[in-house]
Design brief:
alpha/beta; Sulfate adenylyltransferase; Rossmann fold; six-stranded parallel beta sheet
Amino acid sequence: MLIGMASSGIPEPHGGRLINRVVGGDPERITSDRDILRVGISDDLASDVENIADGVFSPLEGFMDHDDLMHVLKDGRLHNGLAWTIPILLDVDSDTGARMKDARDVLLVSKSTVALMHVEDCYRYDKLEIARSVYQTTDPSHPGVARTMAMKDIFVHGRIDLVSRANRDELRRYRLTPAESRRMIVERGWRSVVGFQTRNIPHLAHEMLQKSVLNFFDALFINPLIGRKKSGDFRDEVIIRAYEVLVDNYYPKDRVLFATLHTEMRYAGPKEAIHHAIMRKNLGCTHFIVGRDHAGVGSFYHPFAAQEIFKYYPDIGIEPVFFPAFFYCKRCMGIVSERMCPHPQDYRMELSGTRLRRMITEGERPSELLMRPEVVDVIMQHGDPFVP
């Protein structure tokens, strides 16, 4: 099913129409049908199912086929030429793949998500080639490479229909579908909305960056990623609560929209920056912030590779907003960037997630020069704020 959503100011969904494959129904009745094959899926795959059904991944209507995967890896585009850089795949073992191909219609079931999948093809693909193309490395220390190489051998292609979804628990209470976020943007009369992706708690450099766009655009859409992350990243509940107190205490309520995006972090650097932009376009953003080392990990990507890749996607349909790195300058006595500050490195205090994690792990409370005290309280009171 396709939903067209014309609105003034905000862009059309990627591919022209917003996908809607939510059918509803009685999950107990469907799952009790003994004649239909049931396939268990992980929470990550369940999130992908929801994102397909709700149009977060528009124009995809299901998990990718061989042709689309090949074009994404080779060209960074779907087979029809539309910009797309991250494979969206359902992987199963060989036995399950054979049974799914014979069954054609199967149930995908997680703890709380039920979807009907119309199987069209089962195929194999070189996982090393996937890793090399998406992450630009085959180093197993890269979390995305490790995740790819651990995938099962068979990929299954087919459209999905979402029957039931996860409840709105503490982690999902701010989740918005593209239809919902677009409706809110139109109702508020915003014509320019800047999306901000994060997998971290907010420090003052983030706040400075976010607030600076409010000088030029109608609204800021803060959209932290909630889902599987690497060891050492902040836990999802800490990220959500930190942004709650920040927005409540320091942001103009009539110009900020806070919502969560539920998908796994892939750490694909520039390729993931394009993917993040496409999802925010589908959510209704006109612009998207791309900062230093966006979606990067370790030293696998040049600090500004995620900005440079956008020159190859002039047709993406959402405008990137590039920012340099921000830091605290002791001489300027404030948060600045290289474009604003003439002072040498000795005066600078870098505001990085790595530095903050190290301070907190060592029991040191970050000062108000680095982070709002309300945010620090959220972290320090949690007791175990990091992914193990």
